């Protein structure tokens, strides 16, 4: 059995690889070869990637695709998407093209407020704490003046600091609930630095506050951290057109298609099992752009799903309606994104993705990302209520299966042709592939 290792992080990259290969894989030589195969020949570029995280042993590739023809507020975009799942880029491109001739996507940023909290325990008189907080507030702001200076110069900074009594949920639990404007930065570092400054100031000032008893002076800071729940950092994206412009789809009339779309969205509104998958489809589009632009997709995921449950039940992030013969389809989603800082100037592909998007501000990126989510959802639900999802999926999946089977280019072309007329399931592809091979 392998024993734990001390000081792994101090080993050289070569030694780390050798250690993993020898202790955790069956064929160490092959393991080393696979890992090194993904190293970049350009040493500078490789070093850059090595330093993004700790204990790097190689690079992990994801395809970067482009979904063109997105008309957003009358401006045309080609959207870069980093994702491993087939069909996503194709579905986005198809939805973009569909709406491009129907007025395109319209978007509005509803708010850009970020949130952070200092969580602390206070054992004592709440009224005294409230009076103390009123005196403390200007000192809190003063305590982080150096951190906030540049952000304020650009028009951002701290918006509000509020004392929240949470002791009815948890004994002695209080918060400084703080809101921020971080402009084009996602703002995690800025917010966390401010919060840690507030926490220190709170602790120090409590100790100096004469009306407090010793127990009250000894308030305990538990943690200071931004929140990924940002219900006031929200963007709305929508498409609409006369129902008749939807055109007949796969043997159903435009009216039936519109009704089926609305019904499918309404099912996701009332049924959490469906809502989770419905929203997963939205996140297929969102995460792919978030990742390509070097943003934090875990933060986006966490915030989006929390927002989907904000009214006490997990529900759809998109909405659809037919009013006065107009079909309307829209999304409202919180997105904390940055177009400066973080990986944006470090990772060459992130830089390029932002350039392809015409170097958007964070607000513009919020709109582009929301549109990608809406387009993805439109594409998925359209397939679901018409042909079913497997037809398109299997077409794209076919190539993956053929690649796994080691098909040659000639075999791929022949089997793609064959499956235009036959239903492609995994086993059907394997059988057809074997038959084709055996024929030779
Ligand atoms: C698959 O990645 C996404 C879908 O399941 C989304 C949906 O069901 O709406 C197709």
UniProtKB/TrEMBL annotation:
<dbReference type="InterPro" id="IPR009023">
    <property type="entry name" value="HMG_CoA_Rdtase_NAD(P)-bd_sf"/>
</dbReference>
<dbReference type="InterPro" id="IPR004553">
    <property type="entry name" value="HMG_CoA_Rdtase_bac-typ"/>
</dbReference>
<comment type="pathway">
    <text>Metabolic intermediate metabolism; (R)-mevalonate degradation; (S)-3-hydroxy-3-methylglutaryl-CoA from (R)-mevalonate: step 1/1.</text>
</comment>
<dbReference type="InterPro" id="IPR009029">
    <property type="entry name" value="HMG_CoA_Rdtase_sub-bd_dom_sf"/>
</dbReference>
<keyword id="KW-0520">NAD</keyword>
<dbReference type="GO" id="GO:0004420">
    <property type="term" value="F:hydroxymethylglutaryl-CoA reductase (NADPH) activity"/>
</dbReference>
<comment type="similarity">
    <text>Belongs to the HMG-CoA reductase family.</text>
</comment>
<dbReference type="InterPro" id="IPR023074">
    <property type="entry name" value="HMG_CoA_Rdtase_cat_sf"/>
</dbReference>
<dbReference type="GO" id="GO:0015936">
    <property type="term" value="P:coenzyme A metabolic process"/>
</dbReference>
<dbReference type="Pfam" id="PF00368">
    <property type="entry name" value="HMG-CoA_red"/>
</dbReference>
<dbReference type="GO" id="GO:0140643">
    <property type="term" value="F:hydroxymethylglutaryl-CoA reductase (NADH) activity"/>
</dbReference>
<dbReference type="InterPro" id="IPR002202">
    <property type="entry name" value="HMG_CoA_Rdtase"/>
</dbReference>
<protein>
    <recommendedName>
        <fullName>3-hydroxy-3-methylglutaryl coenzyme A reductase</fullName>
        <ecNumber>1.1.1.88</ecNumber>
    </recommendedName>
</protein>
<keyword id="KW-0560">Oxidoreductase</keyword>
């Amino acid at each position: 059995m392998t024993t734990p290792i001390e000081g792994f992080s101090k080993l050289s990259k070569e030694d780390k690889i050798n250690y993993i290969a020898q202790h955790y894989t069956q064929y160490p030589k092959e393991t080393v070869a696979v890992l090194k195969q993904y190293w970049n020949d350009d040493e500078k570029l490789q070093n850059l990637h090595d330093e993004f995280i700790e204990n790097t042993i190689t690079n992990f590739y994801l395809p970067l695709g482009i979904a063109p023809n997105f008309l957003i507020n009358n401006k045309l975009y080609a959207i870069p998407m980093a994702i491993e799942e087939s069909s996503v880029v194709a579905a986005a491109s198809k939805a973009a093209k569909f709406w491009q001739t129907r007025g395109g996507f319209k978007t509005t940023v509803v708010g850009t407020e970020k949130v952070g909290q200092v969580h602390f325990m206070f054992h004592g008189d709440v009224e005294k704490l409230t009076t103390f907080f009123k005196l403390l507030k200007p000192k809190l702001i003063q305590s982080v003046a150096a951190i906030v200076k540049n952000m304020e110069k650009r028009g951002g900074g701290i918006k509000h600091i509020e004392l929240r009594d949470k002791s009815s949920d948890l004994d002695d639990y209080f918060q400084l609930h703080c809101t921020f404007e971080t402009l084009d930065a996602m703002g995690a570092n800025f917010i966390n630095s401010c919060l840690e400054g507030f926490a220190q100031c709170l602790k120090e000032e409590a100790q100096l506050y004469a009306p407090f008893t010793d127990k009250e002076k000894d308030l305990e800071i538990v943690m200071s951290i931004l929140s990924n729940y940002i219900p006031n950092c929200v963007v709305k994206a929508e498409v609409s057109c006369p129902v008749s412009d939807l055109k007949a789809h796969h043997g159903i009339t435009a009216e039936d298609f519109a009704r089926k779309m609305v019904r499918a969205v309404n099912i996701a509104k009332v049924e959490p099992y469906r809502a989770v998958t419905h929203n997963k489809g939205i996140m297929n589009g969102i995460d792919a752009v978030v990742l390509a632009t070097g943003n934090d997709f875990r933060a986006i995921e966490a915030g989006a799903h929390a927002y989907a449950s904000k009214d006490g039940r997990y529900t759809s992030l998109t909405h659809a309606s037919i009013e006065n013969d107009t079909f309307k389809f829209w999304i409202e989603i919180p997105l904390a994104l940055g177009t400066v800082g973080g990986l944006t100037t470090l990772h060459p592909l992130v830089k390029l993705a932002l350039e392809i998007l015409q170097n958007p501000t964070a607000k513009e990126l919020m709109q582009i990302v929301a549109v990608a989510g809406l387009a993805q959802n439109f594409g998925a639900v359209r397939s679901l209520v018409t042909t079913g999802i497997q037809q398109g999926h299997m077409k794209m999946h076919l190539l993956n299966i053929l690649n796994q089977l080691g098909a040659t280019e000639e075999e791929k072309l022949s089997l793609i042709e064959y499956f235009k007329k036959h239903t492609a399931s995994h086993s059907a592809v394997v059988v057809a592939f074997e038959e084709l091979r055996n024929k030779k």
